[in-house]
């Protein structure tokens, strides 16, 4: 797999996990009001960043977790000339 594809997958999958967790919270019975949606829109990117960072720490201790948390065990490697 091309390293750019690996980078894309490893960035997109954590966002999908956060979206899934958010959806599960709503399905569990929480009904957000208009003000809650504003908070969600602000908090979602932060949640993705926190999930990504925590996932990287978990992956360093348990390498097999990279497949689950990021969709790929590979990490991208960039070389001169990659654009």
Explain the overall architecture.
The structure is a single chain. Helix content is 71%, strand content 0%. By secondary structure, it is mainly α. The longest helix has 28 residues. The radius of gyration is 15 Å and the shape is elongated. It starts with a helix and ends in a 13-residue tail after the last helix.
In short:
Helix content is 71%, strand content 0%. It has helices at 3-27, 34-61, 65-70.
Mean pLDDT metric:
87
Low-confidence stretches: none
Report the helical percentage: over 70%
Estimate the strand proportion. Answer: under 5%
Number of helical runs? Answer: 3
Helices and strands, in order, run as HHH
Morphology = elongated
Number of beta-strand segments: 0
Q: Termini separation (Å)?
A: 16 Å
Question: Features of this protein?
Answer:
single chain, mainly alpha, 3 helices, 83 residues
What is the topology?
Layout (H helix, E strand, L loop, with lengths): L2 H25 L6 H28 L3 H6 L13
Helix pairs in contact: 1-2
């Amino acid at each position: 797999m091309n390293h750019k594809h690996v980078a894309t997958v490893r960035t997109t999958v954590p966002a999908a996990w956060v979206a899934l967790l958010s959806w599960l919270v709503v399905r569990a019975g929480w009904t957000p009001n208009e003000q809650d949606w504003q908070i969600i829109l602000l908090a979602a990117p932060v949640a993705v960043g926190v999930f990504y960072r925590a996932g990287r720490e978990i992956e360093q201790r348990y390498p097999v977790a990279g497949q689950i948390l990021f969709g790929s065990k590979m990490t991208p490697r960039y070389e001169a000339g990659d654009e």
